[in-house]
Design brief:
The complex is a heterodimer of chains A (151) and B (156).
Chain A (H helix, E strand, L loop, with lengths): L4 H12 L5 H8 L3 H13 L3 E7 L8 E9 L6 H10 L4 E8 L4 E7 L2 H12 L5 E15 L6
Helix pairs in contact in A: 1-2, 2-3
Chain B lengths: L9 H12 L5 H8 L3 H13 L3 E8 L8 E9 L7 H9 L4 E8 L4 E7 L2 H12 L5 E14 L6
Antiparallel strand pairs in B: 2-4, 2-5, 3-4
Classes of the chains: A alpha+beta (151), B alpha+beta (156).
Chain lengths: 151, 156
């Protein structure tokens, strides 16, 4: 889909403040509400933009968040598919990313506390297939978390 | 299930799942899907918002369609821990427009950053001019993002 400057202006406002309502987005982007609805409709149906609710897991009692970085045993051609298939079956996995680099796959995992984390790690994570190496980064704090682009 | 502060039943979990997929689903539509009235669905959404479980929206865009073809995760180790202030590093790094995510972590690195760029040449420019010049920056490891998938989490 071709994106023009009007689309970019709208997306810039939405990315800068995801909680704006449609009237406010239209005003800041300098378009009429009718134009905004039409553009947004097109951007959404083409998959260029989507809006999701953000869930605060801490408010649901999940205090621990860990970024697990895996190197897989790539001598087996099914390694990626089988590892990711297994990871999708773990409810505490909230994100799966694949990479080109020293790390092959990253899993973002949440847990209620350290005891719960230890249980997930031992009984659900380490049993995933084709793991060659795993490193953990424990989240201390999130300083910035956005989808903004220098449009 | 009792969890710190707020009890969720199956309807609440279904509402969270639906809104995590699409934040624009109306209370009327949620009600239809769950077999409850629009006001009943609306009250549940409000309760989840008041409890802070529903914490606003996330706007996700097709970065490649907007000309940002490269996303890189950086692991950053600070060079002179103890002497450099974390605040100085954090203040400088959050101001970089290409840096979307900054997380303070414990482990092999001190910070995780998500950086977007138009292409690899543009990424190199951001890395050299903006990242490597940050106060206190030491070792940096880069991994280029190929695919990403958000999962609904333990409300399934």
């Amino acid at each position: 889909m071709a994106i023009d400057d009007t689309d970019r202006r709208i997306l810039r406002q939405m990315l800068a403040d995801p909680d704006l309502d449609r009237g406010e987005i239209a005003a800041r982007a300098g378009v009429t509400p009718a134009t905004l609805w039409r553009r947004l409709d097109r951007l959404q149906s083409s998959g260029t933009v989507r809006q999701r609710a953000r869930i605060d897991w801490r408010k649901l009692g999940y205090e621990v968040e860990v970024s697990l970085r895996f190197t897989l045993d790539k001598t087996d051609p099914r390694a990626f598919d089988e590892f990711i298939g297994g990871a999708r079956g773990v409810p505490e996995v909230v994100g799966i990313e694949t990479f080109l680099g020293r790390v092959d796959v990253r899993l973002n995992v949440i847990a209620r506390d350290m005891g719960h984390w230890q249980d997930i790690y031992r009984t659900k994570v380490l049993v995933l297939p084709h793991i060659a190496e795993v490193e953990a980064l424990m989240l201390i704090s999130t300083i910035k978390d956005g989808e903004g682009l220098p449009l | 299930m009792t969890i710190s502060g707020i009890d969720l039943d199956d309807h609440d979990r279904a509402i969270l799942r639906a809104l995590a997929e699409d934040a624009d689903v109306s209370a009327g539509e949620l009600g239809r899907r769950l077999g409850m009235s629009q006001p009943a669905a609306w009250r549940r959404v409000k309760r989840l918002e008041t409890a802070g479980v529903l914490a606003g929206r996330r706007v996700e865009v097709d970065r490649a369609a907007l000309g940002f073809g490269v996303t890189v995760f950086l692991g950053v180790k600070l060079a002179t821990r103890g002497r450099v202030s974390l605040e100085d590093f954090e203040r400088a790094v959050v101001a970089i427009p290409e840096v979307q995510v900054v997380q303070h972590v414990l482990g092999l690195f001190d910070y995780r950053l998500r950086v977007v760029a138009r292409d690899i040449a543009d990424f190199e420019r951001v890395l050299r001019r903006r990242i490597m010049t940050l106060p206190g920056v030491g070792n940096v490891e880069a991994n280029v993002l190929l695919t990403e998938e958000r999962r609904v989490g333990p409300i399934g």
